Amino acid sequence: MPAYITRRVLQFVPTLLGVMLLVFGLFSWIGGDPAYLLVGKIPNPEQIENIRRQLGVDQPYYVQFWIFVKQVASGDFGASWATNERVSAIFATRLGPSLIVLLPMLAVSTLLAMAAAMLVAHVRGSLTDRTIMIGCTVGQSISILVYILVLQYVLAYRLGWFPVQGWGNGLAENLLRYSALPIIVGVVVSLAPDIRLYRSFFLEEINQDYIRTARAKGMSETRVMWVHVLRNAAIPIVTNVMIQLPGLLAGAFLIERFFSIPGIGREVILAVERSDFPVIKAVTVYVAIATMIINLLADLLYKAVDPRVELK
Amino acid sequence: MSTGATTLSGAPYPASPGLWALAWKRLCRDRVGLASFAIVLLYLALMAASAAGLVAGDWSREAGVSYAPPSFLGPGSAPSAERAAPGSEAAAGAPPEDLGIVDPLAAELAEIRKELTGVSVSESRAPTLAFGGDKWGRDVLKKAIKGTETSVLVGIVAAALAVFLGALFGALAGYYGGPVDDVFNWIYSVFTSIPYLLLVLAIAAVLNQKGTATVILILGLTGWTGTFRLVRAEYMKHKVREYVLAADAIGASNAQRMFGHIFPNVSHVVLVQLSLHVVLFIKSEVILSFLGFGVGVDTVSWGSMLNEAQSELLLGQWWQLVAATVAMAVLVTAFSLFTDALRDALDPRLN
């Protein structure tokens, strides 16, 4: 096991190097000279020279790349070009709101999708199963934008059950008042694809020999489903949820944007709109690192709960 | 790369009783699959007709009043007092520029517009349109058709590019193995460690220019990873099979074995991937265009329609939202069901 972990961690190095090369290549070669972006509408050669020197853009590419590597290692990406706020400070203050919305959303949607998936897998082939599956296919075809627009309009704007958007200061206020509708929207959006996926996990287990054995020895259907099938199907579900997490951190940008939640995702959109390269670079590299670490943790968890899995 | 439609349209020829003929037969037995295939073909025909200017060529004509409400029965059924949208306090039928201020350039502008489009502003505007109008009184149905052209074009071309890259890389990596495989696997792990939409946004930020070609490039260059993994696994499996060894024995070159001998046997995987990616990219294009990183401002797409619908909804004007949503949902549902049917038809072992 320690040998496995060591090897996996060592494999991070080339991948991370690749991510940095990709990000560096994108922003330094294709992205053009940042001095022209920064200097504003009336370019002044002296000013451009000044900015180039400050950013290190006048150095050869290998020196610039080395600066970038040092930034990644130290976590200091300098200041945002748009607001002059430290990039590290942006991360520190934006992570909390993102998590306040994301974690309850993941928990609720996973539990609901598991329950629904177990039900439809149990009555597979029936009218209920087919109706729900077709409903999921249709539900998945509607853009996430429509869900957000309509739910925000109906539940907040027309019915006034929730604030239309906003964010407060206290944890309880944010969680109960401002996050409620974003969480509902997130759950509704993820329900359809999750039910489809989890149903296949449940079906995989229901067709196994040990389930037939359990039934053959007279075990009640409730116990078969809730103990034997659920426990085994939960393994891929939990790893799947874990693997989703880093992507969601940046991927919840639509929800964060519509509901004005000061999270990482909204920061990404703002940065893209303002060509704020330091923020985008930092988010991309750190989310990639988080993805690698969480994938490793998911594999280890898989091994821990299912001894049949062999780590190669 | 060929699209699913043209490949399949070549399939029913009786002269080729191979995999494709069998798959076509199985697809014909699948009612849902066939129906969804028909809908997909209908959309493609609509797209072609719209691109050729046969339908919705006059989508930018300001046919109705601003925010003309939908009414199938014509203006008679919607008296001017009720032109406002249901539930909205403001008289939505009134054009936003009608503030009692006389535009001093109105006459000149009307003259210019008439010269440009041949349509006079003073031409009578319908108080209602069959499916409703947008801010400039353009028919939302025609806009939705025009948006179909953009979104489907982006989806298909980007999917073709992504699947082509994925299949090529997968073929090279799986066939040659060794260092070639290592290099492609390294690139794969780099691309998959960055969440897909984040990568798309980062590239959009760098390119910093809008346009259909840009969206196609962004989606195509980032979306090849799934196809790569599947095709690579297929090539690793196939390269040691007898028929490939036999091809080697009669002196077939590496390229001939890869693309002449193995590729036809893995092409069903590629086709299903193509179909899957069209759906994925249509959804991504809608999000990108909505955020303003997608197609240009002069191009209609479902995403830009939803963007306009965002503020219209607050005024109670739901028709543009509904037009874009329904147009997209029907196509994406049909395409998803068709993809499932295609997979079942091409690979019956899965059942």
Number of helices of chain A: 14
As a percent range, the share of helical residues of chain A equals over 70%
CATH architecture of the largest domain in chain B: Orthogonal Bundle
CATH superfamily of the largest domain in chain B: MetI-like
In helices, the fraction of residues of chain B equals: 55-70%
Gap from first CA to last CA of chain B: 28 Å
List low-confidence stretches of chain A. Answer: none
How far apart are the first and last residues' alpha carbons of chain A, in Å? 10 Å
Strand content of chain A: under 5%
Based on CA inertia axes, which overall geometry of chain A fits? Answer: globular
Oligomer: heterodimer
According to CATH, the fold-level topology of the largest domain in chain B is MetI-like fold
Structural class of chain A: mainly alpha
What is the N-to-C order of secondary-structure elements of chain B (H for helix, E for strand)? HHHHHHHHHHHHH
* CATH class wording of the largest domain in chain B: Mainly Alpha
What's the β-strand tally of chain A?
Answer: 0
DSSP strand (E) fraction of chain B?
A: under 5%
Rg on CA atoms of chain A, Å = 24 Å
Major beta-sheet overview of chain A:
none
Short overview:
The complex is a heterodimer of chains A (312) and B (351). Chain A has 312 residues and is an all-alpha fold. Chain A contains 14 helices and no strands.
Structure description:
The complex is a heterodimer of chains A (312) and B (351). Chain A is mostly helical. Chain A is built from 14 helices and no strands. The longest helix of chain A is centred in the middle third of the chain and has 36 residues, at 87-122. Chain B has two domains: 20-56 and 140-346, MetI-like (MetI-like fold, Orthogonal Bundle); 71-124, no CATH class. The model of chain B is unreliable at 1-6 and 75-97 (pLDDT under 50). Chain B has 13 helices and no strands. In chain B, helix 11 (254-291) packs parallel to helix 12 (302-314). Chain B is mainly alpha-helical and 351 residues long. The longest helix of chain B has 38 residues, at 254-291. Chain B has helices at residues 4-9, 19-29, 31-51, 106-117, 140-176, 178-193, 196-207, 212-222, 225-238, 242-249, 254-291, 302-314, 319-346.
